[in-house]
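User: Please write out a complete single-protein record containing the residue sequence and its fold in token form, without commentary.

AI:
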Amino acid sequence: MNIHFIQHESFEAPGAYLNWANERNYTSTFSKVYENNPLPESVDFIDVLIILGGPQDPATTKNECPHFDAQAEIALIQKAINSGKAVVGACLGAQLIGESFGATFGNSPEKEIGVFPIQLTENGIKDDKINDFGEIISVGHWHNDMPGLTENAQILATSKGCPRQIVKYSDLVYGFQCHMEFTPEVIDLMIETDREFLINNTEHQFVQTPDKIKSFDFKEMNEKLYTFLDKLVEAYQTTHY
């Protein structure tokens, strides 16, 4: 089982996604685009494609961020989906998945940074890959935007600040606007990039202070993500092996 990561920035690290892959003894490969690694030309070696987050959005141009090529990533995601691969997006990654289906990303009603609960929708409670999350679970957030919706997409979870937290695009393709992969190590990296804003924020109701964010125990959230990923791999294997 090979897990391929697209990583946009050093501080948007894979966290629990990579820990899960290592604990299962899966092979992990990377396109670290911030180091100018190329995207794969083929998806034949990929079983699960995981597109991580970043400060960019799908409309960010190469002039604005030379190492980020949204259209190239969208083309790779489309290739993976059309080849029957399992595909998961976190934050920016979720928005790029939506774009790969022709669904334009949008601005979230609220900026969310920190740890806040998400609530499963009726579709979420019925979904066999995330129903172990429980109806309400506290998870990480670090975003301004949210993924677009296709006609057939299902919203599986929402929050008070954002109506599209988990989106199912197909049986093997899921977008997570939230960050269930956060670990203490990743949180330290994220805080360093936004520390001044977090300390001085007085405008956004869903933005927490560094100390508040760091006080959260991420283990349960990570374990729920592991359960989802295990079920996703099982579903993938039934179609490929």
In short: The mean pLDDT is 97. The chain has one domain: 2-240.
